[in-house]
Amino acid sequence: MRAPVSKTSAKNIRLLLIDDHALFRESVSRLLQAEAGFEVVGDCSSASEAMRIINSQDIDVVLLDIDLGQERGTDFLESLHAKRFKGKVLLVTAGVNENEVPDLIRKGISGIFLKHGAPSLLVQGIRETTKGKALFDQDLLRRAFESAEDHHPHQRSARLTEREKRVLSFIFEGLANKQIGDRLQISESAVKACLQQLFAKTGVRTRSQLVRIALEHYRDQL
């Protein structure tokens, strides 16, 4: 484990990298440290090491591999939930079963980035994640969409307006508010108002949770 650094900066995005492959951690750490506005405060190979860092450092984004050797990233997500962690979690992994995607979102991830993606896209994805955007590989998300099973067949879904359904479908595609506004030819503030309506109707609080709602309850309408 590389020891956390002590420097702080209000403008920096503070990152923690959790992966059981030391070479991968080292290369990604060098990449991110070279980016303006990024600060890698620690990297480690296990959930227990990660929790020690989180307990002593302010972390904005955790970059987490789903497979940590003898551990699973899902267990770490449950620990973060119990701690009421306020930062974002971006899953950075070689692969994930599409059937796991809804549960991973339910456990609090803000997105999934596959390791074969370009480094520049990882940098961009981290910045977008801190702004609240749900970041998901679209091929993976589409497979999850096609194979998702509704685990609550008797639960009635909230009735959505046509605009709300369209906004939800664009969130599923990973579009930002401005892009959604351009597609619908409405203002960005109108998109934000529609998002608040979706949050209220579905009982969730984040865009990534709205993606789960789309997967579980509205896949036949998107």
Describe, in plain words, how this protein is organized in 3D:
There is one protein chain. With 222 residues, the protein is an alpha/beta fold. Helix 5 links the parallel strand 7 (111-114) and strand 8 (135-136). 48% of the residues lie in helices and 15% in strands. The longest helix is centred in the C-terminal third of the chain and has 15 residues, at 188-202. Strands 2-1-3-6-7-8 form a six-stranded parallel β-sheet, sandwiched between helices. A two-stranded antiparallel sheet has the order 4-5.
Structure keywords:
222 residues; alpha/beta; Rossmann fold; Arc Repressor Mutant, subunit A; 2 domains; two-stranded antiparallel sheet; 10 helices; 48% helix; globular; disordered N terminus
Question: How do the helices and strands line up, and which of them pair or pack?
Answer:
Elements lengths: L12 E6 L3 H12 L4 E7 L2 H10 L4 E4 L2 E2 L2 E2 H11 L4 E6 L7 H6 L4 E4 L4 H12 L4 E2 L1 H10 L14 H11 L4 H8 L3 H15 L4 H11 L5
Parallel strand pairs: 1-2, 1-3, 3-6, 6-7, 7-8
Antiparallel strand pairs: 4-5
Helix pairs in contact: 7-9, 7-10, 8-9
